[in-house]
Amino acid sequence: MNESKLILVLGDQLSLNQPALKQAEPGRDIIVLAEVAEEATYVRHNRHKIALLFAAMRHFRVELETLGYDVYYTAIDQGVASLEEAVRKVLVQTAATEVVVCEPGEYRLVHQMRSAWSSSLGVPVTVLEDDRFLASHDDFELWARGKKQLRMEFFYRKMRERYQLLMDDGQPAGGKWNYDADNRSGWRNQREIPARPDVPVDDITSAVIAEVNQRFPNNPGDLSQFRLAVTRSEAERQFDWFVTYALADFGTYQDALVEESPWVFHGLISMYINCGLLDPLAVCQRVEIAWREGDCSLSAAEGFIRQVLGWREYIRGIYWLLMPEYKTRNTLSATRPLPDFFWDANTDMRCLSRAIEQSLDHGYAHHIQRLMVIGNFALLAGLDVMEVCDWYLGVYVDAYEWVELPNTLGMALYGDNAVIASKPYAASGKYIQKQGNHCQQCRYKPSKTTGPDACPYNSLYWRFIDRHLDNFGSNPRMGLIAANWRKRDPEERAVIVQWADKMIEEWA
Ligand SMILES: Cc1cc2nc3c(=O)[nH]c(=O)nc-3n(C[C@H](O)[C@H](O)[C@H](O)COP(=O)(O)OP(=O)(O)OC[C@H]3O[C@@H](n4cnc5c(N)ncnc54)[C@H](O)[C@@H]3O)c2cc1C
Ligand code: SF4
Fold first, then answer.
1. Cα 20 to averaged position of ligand 2 atoms, centre (Å)
2. β-sheet bridge partners, residue 211
3. Closest protein CA for atom 5 of ligand 2
4. Å from CA of 274 to ligand 1 middle
5. Which of 80, 98, 128 is the last residue of a domain?
6. Does residue 38 lie in a domain region?
7. What is the pLDDT of residues 424-479, one digit of tens each?
8. Are 47 and 120 in contact (CB under 8 A)?
9. Which one of the ligands is nearest to 305 CA?
10. Is there a single domain that holds both residue 403 and residue 459?
11. Which residues constitute the domain of residue 280?
């Protein structure tokens, strides 16, 4: 008779297609799902994220049991501290003789499992590579090998060819690989933004919401506004809604900053892809079909597919290629503590306050808010890279270290020795003004650089250039800006830098 395996399923592995579950046999193997304090509390996670994962895990348990699996479920009120302890408890209750788990999305946990679990649990532990991603570790290493620069665009082209997405007779559809230039429109209330459909909250989810509110009273997140799908079929319905009502405008307004809507025309699907409720290849294929059937432009479809097939896989590849050393990087020696307004959104900078407020309340901000509003501010103000990374990891519902860290440390903070970004994503208030309508509601003026009503992003931007002239002077993409700054009157430069310093001191 085959011996029984204990299959551990983590909260971001809720898919029957993940490799550990593909090995599971109903009636023989034991499935373990565990809500544990260690994973829920090692950063101050948004309550939306905890509620999403616990509710999705509890629904997944029902699905597995319906399929005939024997599931051992540990709820948070059972007080189990760690995943290892949850596994140990089940091992002593059952006849399982080995543990199988799909690789977690965090180096710390994979390292613990691979290096210590087998000897401490007394049974073999197999950690399987997560094949729900579209590029394996080997694929990415092979692509990266020998390259001086690891630019996403070239990786993305390979992935398009490999998965035959938006390809016609071996060539990119429409003759170009990238339609990014069509996707940068600012927001001037050009369109009505469709209201997002509600997601029904059933008894399982209601109980989770009540428990999370009670157990995590000091975490961010307003659960009276919980609107996340917690099963695969609901997540698919949300994605269908996006394809039908928002995809056509997704590309054009991808970079827009909109006072009235946190979601604009974005997908709101990262949280579902990342926890296993949606499949990344299936969403790309569905979007290609929408384009081929005439439901959206090629630039919208390409813009979307580039994010999922390109950026998402590339970011993950960088994480596993360069960890654990990657996490120790801090290229610009940024060490200032986070201002308090990161936890209450209480700042007069309208763009920043809106982005932080919705991040805290909903656990969501779209890419340009994360990169060019919050990230840009943190970069310009020289905020401590690890504090900023922990903030992003805690605040967003879709945040796991494999995706949060390279995006924050590398893309937003330019802290990884220019692996991800060839130049810093640094911008003054003029960029934010161009991309949206926040400035109209702001007490600051994007046209001014110093003085009480000057937009803080402006002087911070020049202070940033000034401080890093040595780093950027030789960067061909920053050289012109650095040269222009050098040409300005030294007294004028000093006034701008002092004004920025003064503001930074006030936030400390
Ligand atoms: C500083 C910073 C931190 C970020 N942290 C996270 C994070 O913790 N988790 C996360 O999933 N994404 C993160 N991103 C990437 C991106 O902002 C989110 O994936 C996106 O905002 C999610 O919203 P959406 O589903 O509406 O995306 P859409 O705008 O609709 O895009 C479609 C999909 O593309 C994928 N995608 C797009 N850009 C990226 C990217 N740079 N990296 C990975 N996937 C991408 C996502 O799966 C997303 O759902 C971060 C970006 C920045 C700049
Ligand atoms: S004026 Fe400056 S701080 Fe105010 S919304 Fe515009 S960019 Fe943001």
1. 48
2. none
3. 439
4. 10
5. 128
6. yes
7. 999 999 999 999 999 999 999 999 999 999 999 999 999 999 999 887 767 777 88
8. no
9. 1
10. yes
11. 137-194+246-322
